[in-house]
Amino acid sequence: MSVEPESEVPVLLVGVRDEFVTRPWLSPDRHWPDRPGLIGGRDLQAGGTWLAAAPAARRVAVLLNGHGTPAAEELRRTRGDLPLEAAEAGELPPIELFRYDPFHLVVAGLDGVRLWSWDGERLAEDKLPRGVHMLVNSGWEQGDDHPRVAAFRPAFAFAQRPRWLNGGSPDRFWGEWLELASGAGLAADDPRALIFRHRLEDGRVFASLSVSLVAVAEEGMRFDFLPTPGDPSSWYRVHTGDPA
Q1: What per-residue string of b and e applies to 217-233 under the rule 16 or more CB within 10 Å gives b?
Q2: What is the CATH number of domain 2-237?
Q3: Fewest CB atoms less than 10 Å from the CB: which of 67, 75, 84, 133?
Q4: 160-187: pLDDT as tens digits
């Protein structure tokens, strides 16, 4: 996440979705008839999303699973509804927090970037200042102890910042950011890897299933999507125009 309020493109977001490979999903589209202004990938197991874009509002909301105390199973609600509600509202919606497993919710727009973190017991709220920031499952990592953060935060900060372009391929728009968001060539088992793949002891595979790049500017919103991590040629631009 890069925040530069005075820039031509004030907000740049890279979102990597990590999940079990057997969990079904659909690539970004207007999947919610009751929310026609929203675009996002759809989780077919619970019906929600991990990232919701609201192009008309110049706003995007993204969710990460957090660490902490899980909700009671009989009360639990899916966290996948939160990005949808937050993208529309522009903030954390009024919810019964005790019904949700720990999460980190980011809402980014032309008015700034806010972060809500719920650990099952306490809710924290932050506004991200100017600069490049990285969030992982442990939250907003501001040091260099996390190997992925230590490798990629300075790399994104050093990379040339994309300028607003009305058209063009993902590579033309994003430039150096596209290579970094594609994993920068690191092996999937490298502890620094942005795109990873792990086989658990029970045989299940937990991996990076997709990557999103979102740019928010006065002129509009740019949304590019990588449905096949490991294959940079699969990047494509998501249509963000008005619904038909």
Answers
A1: beeebbbbbbbebeebe
A2: 3.60.60
A3: 75
A4: 999 998 788 999 999 999 999 999 999 9
